[in-house]
Amino acid sequence: PPQVSFTLELEFSCSILLDRAEVTLQATSDSTEATPEDNVVKLSVPIRYEPNLFLSSNSNLHRYEVHPLGTFTQSSGPEFTTTVKVQNLGCYPIQNVTLHMALPALGHRQATILSVTHVVGENTTCVLQPPEEGTQLVPVPLEDLLHMDR
After folding, report:
1. Who wins on pLDDT, 38 or 138?
2. Helix, strand, or coil (residue 140)
3. Where would one find coiled-coil regions in this protein (predicted)?
4. Where does the pLDDT of residue 12 fall: very low under 50, low under 70, confident under 90, or very high at 90 and above?
5. In 3D, which of 59, 61, 72 has the Cα closest to residue 142?
6. 126 and 88 in contact (C-beta within 8 Å)?
């Protein structure tokens, strides 16, 4: 018997959010059929909206002073603020977004090169956690610091 294939492309509105798309397809003919009940099919498909997240960061300190090898001091360097922003550029609401950040905090010979003094969150909950026990801390290799622009 002859067959016909259909491709349906649906476009959804930002103002009405649906959980499911329901489509009814019915084939009709001028001929007499013995089983017309199989000419109708109802499809119900769950809808999942694609997020459009934009992640940006900005710091108020753009140059960092790295002391020569062996001359690290115990005093802390200048305090600076880094702002990380997560924006939803899409028109669909997004829930349960979690952002994990690992901060490079160790230099040559496990010297501390960065410490977090405080965390402030806007419209979010921020949790500062030390690395889990057993987590391998990866120090910043000395070569990475030597080849930076001066």
Report:
1. 38
2. coil
3. none
4. confident
5. 72
6. no
